[in-house]
Design a protein that fits this description.
The structure is a homopentamer of 297-residue chains. By secondary structure, chain A is an alpha/beta fold. Chain A has helices at 14-25, 41-44, 59-68, 78-84, 118-123, 140-157, 170-174, 181-194, 222-233, 248-261, 270-273, 277-292, and strands at residues 34-38, 73-76, 94-97, 128-135, 161-167, 198-202, 237-241, 265-267. Helices cover 41% and strands 14% of the residues of chain A. Chain A has an eight-stranded parallel beta barrel with strand order 1-2-3-4-5-6-7-8, surrounded by six helices. In chain A, helix 5 links the parallel strand 3 and strand 4 (128-135). Chain A is globular, with a radius of gyration of 18 Å. Chains in contact: A-B, B-C, B-D, C-E, D-E. The interface between B and D is large, with 42 and 34 residues.
Chain lengths: 297, 297, 297, 297, 297
């Protein structure tokens, strides 16, 4: 297990520290852990993601769910933030997602273009911004250029930067796929090297070993893998993503292993809202039980 | 042997001279030579480079190693500089690497995109910036455009510019490879022509002669080759890169030949930190013995 | 006595910390104290200040004296920095003075206009900038506006900001004069409140009580006064100015009391160079003996 | 023979005229002709060009040769200008080459990317800028866009623009090659149409008629060809390039024919410095004898 | 006598050195001295200055006189440069005067407002810019702000900055007047401290002692005074101004004393052109005889 760093020890300036402290200690369990509700799937996958629970297609429903569920933040794109955050502004932290894309074209040259700015996030009272970086994409020149601007603006305005570090592109597919231990580990490190304050990664799969570099081509437990990923992120706080909906017990075990590894928290969307309202809150309660065991300072 | 130029004779403005003098005469052996610790491999190769010595995956360990080993500088990407340099700020010079890439996609169209600016380097108190130029890449239009901006900003802000001059791309592979004498010699000259203050090259291999231009297709000793490379760099100070880990005696002999040729110093990463802590320092001590024999003014 | 704050505990960002550490620990006694050589009198008072030791009119003589005397920095205006710092660039830290004025017109509306920028300081490799703030002047609107820009630029570029906090103007003259305890104490606090990293003040004179506010109109020892001034500056490091030439023993006693109070160092110009070369160095040696007794971390 | 236009009759603004007059009447023979020394081959071809005379690899040797030989200017890339021009600044005019490339990748899509700006040229005290335009390349969109910016900046800053007009690319190879009369004539006109003040072309070869357009597919003497090229350039002054080293008498005959045609001068590099020092000066003296016969006003 | 500094030893960047070398070694006596022709009196005093020699009211007459007389440069305002320099562009260096004023209002709050930019100077092919600084004026805040911008632009564009350092304002009048030794000495130093490359001052009058500071209130010979002024300017090259028309022998004696003191040259306007054409040239010939005795390197 990697020791989770205290918020005072990870090299943050005043504004970033103030905003992250609000997220981690004034919301949710107020114990330094985080449970975020991502809601960018309407752009990323389209409305099909809401067919399982049509009410979840209504952003107002989701923002209220975030408040009711005691989330540490909700991550949305600019359009929903403009129209729906006002109602609950200040009741749950806003993470403004600054880039995004549809899943209609192929991901071979994956790039998530900017559609909002750090200044938009400030204007809307957000406590962090989110940026999707496609680690391994051939379009890295554009991706790095976008991130450079976002990072510089976030530094200048004291806004925490959460990087969605997603392995993607043809070369990733050829080397074990996007959630191999190799790919997730590299993605976590890349976000850290490029200046993320917080990094969101998928849970690593050490059993996906086809064509990965030799160092990763041996037996690792999932705990060993997630431990390594958190170490690779070093002083970048780690959020583990829920990804597609899966069985609750499996998800909770992943959550437990992630926190055990030193992650700061979880960012679960479809596993939360692709079910009926009260069931969502019951699942959230179980996630909070996990987080309660890993307080930080 | 090429005579190493004095810092006062290589056409530097005041700020660049002040910063290089600090690097060369206020740190390390304080004799005008340099030993740099590069630590950009977490981005360039991924965490696999740290499997040989897991402690080396922690940037704090590396920055402290640079202080303990009496290095003249440590080269890191923006994310690590933001989070880890504060602890030792001013104790070892910072070289902020301004561009970088993962090794996931192919190098046929190699380009290392910018992810930080010279102004970032100034803000962090760095004493130099680093830029990777892929000499021979088909993407040279983007590469030159990036370098032009970096050079102009560095000139304007008095910041020394260290160019990682790396032959790369399909045409290089077809003409003797990336560490042939031909390729390294051309790379050193290119950096000099485009305005580097310091150039980092690999040690040249004159025996790699397959398909190189006729001028290079004859017998050269490695000393003759490295002599020529330093001459080609003319008033651009030369750093010889260690590259992949190899045997200590071979590395030390390369170091000796490089300094004999008039290089200003060495930039050794994996050969230093891909081993246990005390062994790292022992190897550094041997490198320093070499540098001690080549004082400059 | 006020405990001198450690450099790591005064809220500095990375670049400011790196540069101040260089000044305080890589030059002079390398013990966290500072002895600066100010050389802006050619502008502030005109060449008459050099009549006592004509050699001191030559900036090259002064820069060399700063190197020979082991000073922690030399403070000059832009013109001398451009023409004379190159020769010794990096051998002694440069503090670029950003504003200044002649003493030809009256000081009733005192304002020291900007003649250089923080970007100039960066370009010249300076480790700090200096700004003269006339505390109490009727022209405070222009003065604050200038300082606001300098402070913002210094923050953005990681450059330590040293404020020459000088009580000045008709109202100051009417309330005890420019070096009363009241005026100096207020000036130190003003610099701290407006964002100085380091403040330069004159030694306070508690005996100048004519027309000062009642709180200052009682008996204070000079030690009590300077203790209070350093406390007023709180996390702003304090430099005590030498001012006009006076007797050596009196100056040394002021130096001792200042360091005892928790000042970080001294900034002595005319008392140093308004005498023959070797005598200057003898006086510097005595100042260094004082500083050696007050190491910091 | 085309009458060479007087400098006052070619539509130049004040700054361009002042700078060209300096080049043509204050240096060299001071008779309105020009002999330039180009030294961009270290980038364009690599250090192999210096194997014939290793001393020529040292830029300082070349700049001094330009002074000794009474050249009207020396054309170098930004890196060498920054480091080597200071020593002889003002003694021989500087032409700053603004773009360049290595010869490592194929020329099928030839483009010479910008690596410096007109503002750099002004800052360095240059009297002209050079730009390589690849006439016929498929990458003409980028090429024209670059030239457009350079031309506009040069117009704005009164800086003469010398265009290296080089036919290049697959289509050129298929229509007679890069030094056919057809290609050179078209290149001269293209430079003139796009706003060059001076154009540098290779000597045209009317005998290279394979696959050229019918108009060029008949017998022309070399004098007729170069006459036509100078006419095509109209008020754009013409420099004839020496190209690869060839026999002296042949080069001198080309020089004579060029001047007879109305060219303003010659730009000879490898033919000058790919030989021993004194032999270089002897050859230059013969070139000057030719130029002396063609004074202009 | 102060030794005149060599152009290579006064801390100039490449462009400034190139342009000053052209002025000092490619024009006039080509021996490192300078004779400038100022022609800004039409603005500064109005046409009354041309009544003595009406032909001198025609700028074309004056530019030609500068060429005929072998001057090292002519200093004019933007309007005349735009309209009259083209005819002789490149034949005599242009110094573009960037500010100026009429003499109609009182000089008590003297300020010479900008009317042109360094970029204008570049565009017109000028080799230097001129700026009038009123040392001692109460309007120093505006004056310093203007000069700061001009200095920064000149630094950025490699353009030498000549400061007309004129004591002016009510306080100056109260302390000995504008050409007292005290005032001229302070003015020379002020220009140097604020970043002039060259300073133009009036010849100092040590006999004007009424109300000057005590240091200046004793007997100095005019040679002692001008020696001191040149020393105060240190690495700033000094030009002595002719001022109002006076007797030739007196002017020549001042010229001789100035050069003996280490001045770089003279800037004589009314004394040259307020007389008939051939008489002007005869006087110029006598000035050149003086300059010929003081070659520099």
């Amino acid at each position: 297990m990697t020791q989770r760093a205290s918020l005072g020890d990870v090299g943050l300036g005043t504004g970033k520290k103030a905003r992250l402290r609000r997220i981690l200690f004034q919301h949710g369990l107020r114990n330094g852990t985080a449970l975020f509700l991502p809601y960018d799937q309407g752009l990323e996958h389209g409305p099909r993601d809401f067919f399982a629970n049509p009410g979840a297609g209504d952003p107002r429903y989701i923002v209220r769910l975030a408040v009711e569920g005691g989330f540490n933040g909700i991550a949305v794109q600019i359009g929903l933030a403009e129209k729906f955050y006002w109602d609950y502004a200040g009741e749950v932290p806003l993470i403004l997602k600054l880039n995004g894309k549809t899943d209609i074209p192929s991901d071979a040259q994956a790039l998530s273009p900017l559609h909002a700015s750090v200044a938009d996030a400030v204007r809307l009272g957000a406590d962090a911004v989110g940026y999707t970086l496609y680690v391994g994409t051939p379009a890295l020149d554009q991706d790095f250029a976008q991130l450079r601007q976002v990072r510089a603006d976030a530094q200048q305005l004291g806004m925490p930067l959460i990087v969605w570090a997603y392995p993607r592109g043809a070369a990733i597919e050829a080397k074990g796929g996007k959630d191999s231990f190799y790919a997730v580990d590299y993605a976590a490190r890349t976000a850290s090297e490029l200046g993320a304050d917080v990094v969101k990664v998928n849970f690593p799969h050490p059993e996906k070993r086809a064509a990965v570099p030799p160092a990763y081509d041996r037996d690792f437990s999932s705990q060993e893998a997630v431990d390594a990923v958190v170490r690779s992120a070093n002083r970048t706080l780690v959020l583990i993503s829920g990804g597609e909906r899966a069985g609750d017990d499996a998800m909770l075990e992943k959550a437990r292993e992630s926190m055990e590894a030193g992650a700061t928290g979880l960012i679960f969307g479809r596993n939360v809202w692709q079910r009926e309202h009260d069931d969502s809150l019951r699942f959230v309660a179980r996630l909070r039980e996990v987080l309660a065991k890993y307080p930080s300072t």
